Amino acid sequence: MIDKALSFITTYVNQELKASFGLSEDKVIAGSLINPDGSVTENMENKIIVTIINIENETFAGNTQSAYKQSGENNYAKQEPPLYINLYLLFAANYTSKNYLESLKMLSAAIAMIQANPTFERNNFPEMDPQIDRLTMEIHNIPINELSHIWSGIGAKYVPSMIYKLRMLAVQKAKIQSTVSGISGLDSSTTKKN
Length: 194
Prior knowledge:
By secondary structure, the protein is α+β, with helices and mostly antiparallel strands. It has one domain: STM4215-like, CATH 3.30.2000. 25% of the residues lie in helices and 30% in strands. It has three helices and nine strands; from the N terminus they run αβββββαββαββ. A six-stranded mixed β-sheet has the order 1-2-5-8-7-6, with helices on one face. A three-stranded antiparallel β-sheet has the order 3-4-9, with no helix packed on it. β3 and β4 form a beta hairpin.
């Protein structure tokens, strides 16, 4: 599910950049700036790289109890409710120093496109994965010293960037834990009235 959400966001921004600037190639790539061994990732130069820097559980998202859903005429299936998560996305303009102004232009355009449409719902974006109902992007401001820690953790040198919180991605495996029969034999017409 995380991959589908990230793919949708990068595809959306790429389409908007291509339409705005008449580009033929993708300028936004989901990936990592640095490989796990510390080497620089290849073919990421002069692109906006979208990297997940944190995944958090959304605790405000609703019921945490198991739910029963009807799965037949008089049967109910017990299934754990979805887990709602938020993704923190780093949009980093990974351009060479000679293309610094171009990096700012592309990053600014990407920010403007998300600002113009921060909420994505499947009825407006039919290309979204059927398992995703809604995504919301909001800028996540952090103090500069924390930003320094993020870049140190990534193991890369700072480049112009913006951090977004991608809100409320529902993750659920359609695994039925048990099935129970509904209550039968109740007839409302025979219930006594006081």
